[in-house]
Design goal:
Elements (H helix, E strand, L loop, with lengths): L2 E7 L21 H11 L4 E6 L3 H5 L7 E4 L7 H12 L6 E6 L7 H12 L8 E6 L2 E9 H10 L7 H6 L3 E4 L15
Parallel strand pairs: 1-2, 1-4, 2-3, 5-7
Antiparallel strand pairs: 4-6, 5-6
């Protein structure tokens, strides 16, 4: 299955204290670089990074192996970021899109690989629809087969992502709680 990864890194990070696309580990590694490396290690054929708030600064941290997608209307919320990512991948030959937010710097490549393996089953690659769950709690990565891109796009509004669409269309839930916590980082250093 030809798969594109999408890192959501366009938000202003108001609770965090600034754009999460600029955040770094305690060792100084940009989260955006970690996210790209994780998607490449998991087997994504291409990686896109959606940038918005302080976009030029975030884009400067994106490794050359990934493609930057500028989200002009990033202030409209998560929906705008995901919509821009979907629009950027449509012209490609990708059959599926793996979505992960930049604020999950501890996400391991195995979570993506597990979702990719378990989601396929009898479905054609373009029909897959899955998400990682952690002790049954929905999280990331999310896997969207090409056949679902238009439907997901139509349901996007405000600061909501694909969650409603995934629930309404029976997305495969793939337990990944044994790999890591699944927690995103909402607050910056205090």
């Amino acid at each position: 299955m030809r798969t594109t990864g999408l890192v959501l890194a366009a938000g202003a990070g108001s609770r965090f204290g600034g754009p999460k696309g600029l955040a770094r580990t305690t060792a100084g590694e940009p989260w955006v670089q970690r996210a790209v490396r994780m998607l490449v290690a998991a087997g994504c054929d291409e990686v896109l990074v959606a940038v918005g708030a302080r976009g030029a600064d975030v884009a400067a941290l994106v490794p050359p192996s990934a493609r930057v997608v500028v989200v002009d209307d990033w202030a409209d919320g998560l929906a705008a970021t995901l919509r821009a990512g979907l629009d950027a991948v449509v012209p490609s030959d990708a059959e599926a899109l793996v979505v992960t937010p930049v604020d999950t710097p501890d996400a391991p490549p195995e979570a993506v690989r597990r979702v990719l393996r378990r989601a396929g089953g009898e479905r054609a690659p373009s029909d897959v629809l899955a998400r990682a769950v952690y002790a049954g709690r929905p999280g990331h990565p999310v896997l969207l087969g090409r056949a679902h891109w238009a439907g997901v796009r139509e349901t996007l509004a405000g600061d909501a992502g694909a969650g409603r669409y995934l629930a309404a269309h029976g997305a495969v839930e793939v337990e990944c709680g044994d790999l890591w916590s699944g927690a995103d980082v909402d607050h910056g250093p205090r």
